[in-house]
Amino acid sequence: MIEGTSAYCIKKEPSLDRLRESFKVINRNVTHAQKILNDLLDFARPKPLKTRPYKINNVIERAISLVTIDLERCNVTLSMNLCSPSPIVACDEKQLNQVFLDLVWNARQAMPNGGSLTISTSVNSSPPAELLHPGDTCPKRQEEMQQFVKISFSDSGVGIDEKSIKKIFEPFYTSKPKGLGLGLSICKRIIHAHGGTITVESKHGEGTTISIFLPVESYS
Ligand SMILES: Nc1ncnc2c1ncn2[C@@H]1O[C@H](COP(=O)(O)OP(=O)(O)OP(=O)(O)O)[C@@H](O)[C@H]1O
Ligand SMILES: [Mg+2]
Q1: What are the pLDDT digits (tens) for 151-167?
Q2: Staple partner for 132: which of 56, 79, 136, 152, CB 3.0–4.6 Å?
């Protein structure tokens, strides 16, 4: 697409409007190619965590502020319901940012005609075992009294059928024509590296909730 569009611009001497349109196509495709390359690199060579204690509410708000305009443009109504006081989590903000943006992106893609996305947090003592993905393990750092913050992304999108739900965290599983299928497997690896876990609940045709559980250090 990039090659074809740029070749057209070089050969055909297009008008300024056509040129602008062509650059938009090139720009979209470069962004897509960049995401594929970054995901492949992250998958092949996971980055070590650089953790620091953060108020998790601030980490979520900073990440989501990057996509609010885009969500509005796509008719997605965003609601945030963050518990107070904010749990403090030892985390790598950059890597969690990537997880949150991937989950929002998946939710957006599941609502091509718009819908609602609710991001909420609550504090649980541990993730419910029945929500753990088959083959998944409970968080390594789970001790008797370890508290976990649950961060849920609930959308009103197309949902996932029972057969596919088992596969969504597998590398290269995708139901999208242009998907690579690495987003959720990278999210899972990042969350596990934080001593947490990630779960899914979904009803085909009704929506999906992806929840992340992270160990809490303290509260602020
Ligand atoms: N919020 C959601 N609603 C419905 N289906 C979802 C949702 N999130 C993930 N899925 C399903 O899980 C699959 C895997 O998701 P994942 O993010 O790993 O890959 P992808 O989105 O297909 O491609 P990539 O993220 O690499 O661009 C998706 O193709 C889709 O079928
Ligand atoms: Mg994805």
Answers
A1: 999 999 999 999 999 99
A2: 136
